[in-house]
Amino acid sequence: MAVRTVEWLDEPVPAVRLLDQTRLPAEEVHLTAADVDTLVDAISRLAVRGAPALGAVGALGVAVALAQGAREGWDDARLRHEITRLREARPTAVNLAWAVDRVLAFLPDGPEAVLAEARRVFDEDEAANRALSAHGADWLLRRCPDRPLRVLTHCNTGTLATTAWGTALGVIRELHARGRIELVHVDETRPLLQGSRLTAWELRADGIDHVVQVDSAAAGAILRGLVDAVVIGADRIAANGDTANKVGSVGLALACADAGIPFVVAAPWSTVDLATPDGAGITIEERAPDEVVAIGGVPVAPAGSRVFNPAFDVTPARLVDAIVTERGVAEPKLRPDMTAVQQPL
Ligand code: MRU
């Protein structure tokens, strides 16, 4: 799809232009962030979201911070403080911190070198997504050769969650391009509805047949034999293949294991965090209670209800059949070791 989720603007001042995802699908509204406060706010309230898109914004955001610092006369300590705020705006998706650190290494070489590296982070994302999508489609078609696939997905992992094409949704796009998709089951993805608001919007634009379902319909659909495979994205993959992704993912993996159908994770290598040995070391973001007890500002629980609102969960490697990255496919159920697919770039 043609939409640009994240763009760099040179003029009038260096800035990042974002498609405000909180307004979709009702309206396509962009916002321009020329300072760190606006960037951190956009990330925190999910105007931009999805691990690879957060990486792109983090990378370009360092260049925004440098330009703002030059305009406002920041010293080095202030600059580093602001960049740390950006880096820590959301804790679970490793892509954000990874991209900020990668670009920050070019700080001694000056603002042009920083921006050039940020652009490389941006440009590499689509290439990675297209490569991992081909690997994922190949793997799924080997496992499920007999019929066009009925695939279930959770959250949004498409163009909106990346710089272009998508990860799990990229695999689905690739299968569709090969004429091998019958139907996509789209989990609505409570509480913020990334599935129904964003994934259904992308699938509709691409003419890929889909149904939107409440999250609690997923396990029943899987056990009734209505789904051939589940494909999801990831926010952080530990060295052993334990995978953090949108809350609700682990329940899908359990249902797949019981039904004997593949549970596939699709993510760029930048989502793999070899420094974290297993899922116990992954910080799970907890978000505001309002997201759960109100919908569109209307209360859906008694006033004062206590809330548990983790944005993510961790699927143990023992439940993951395949992790597809641009470097190839790992099969954690068989070998819980992400370095098994690590190749030189
Ligand atoms: O809270 P979000 O919308 O940022 O969560 C996004 C997800 O969980 C995605 O599945 C993940 O980031 C992969 S996006 C390609």
From TrEMBL:
Species of the source: Pseudonocardia zijingensis
EC number: 5.3.1.23
Pathway: Amino-acid biosynthesis; L-methionine biosynthesis via salvage pathway; L-methionine from S-methyl-5-thio-alpha-D-ribose 1-phosphate: step 1/6
GO MF entries: isomerase activity
Family statement drawn from the similarity comment of this UniProt entry: Belongs to the EIF-2B alpha/beta/delta subunits family. MtnA subfamily.
Annotated active site: D235
Binding site for substrate: R49, G50, A51, R90, Q194, N245, K246
Role description: Catalyzes the interconversion of methylthioribose-1-phosphate (MTR-1-P) into methylthioribulose-1-phosphate (MTRu-1-P).
Catalytic activity reported: 5-(methylsulfanyl)-alpha-D-ribose 1-phosphate = 5-(methylsulfanyl)-D-ribulose 1-phosphate
Record site: Transition state stabilizer: C155
Protein name: Methylthioribose-1-phosphate isomerase
Keywords assigned by UniProt, alphabetized: Amino-acid biosynthesis, Isomerase, Methionine biosynthesis
Gene3D superfamilies per the UniProt record, alphabetical: translation initiation factor eif-2b, domain 1, Translation initiation factor eif-2b, domain 2
Pfam families reported in the protein's UniProt record: IF-2B
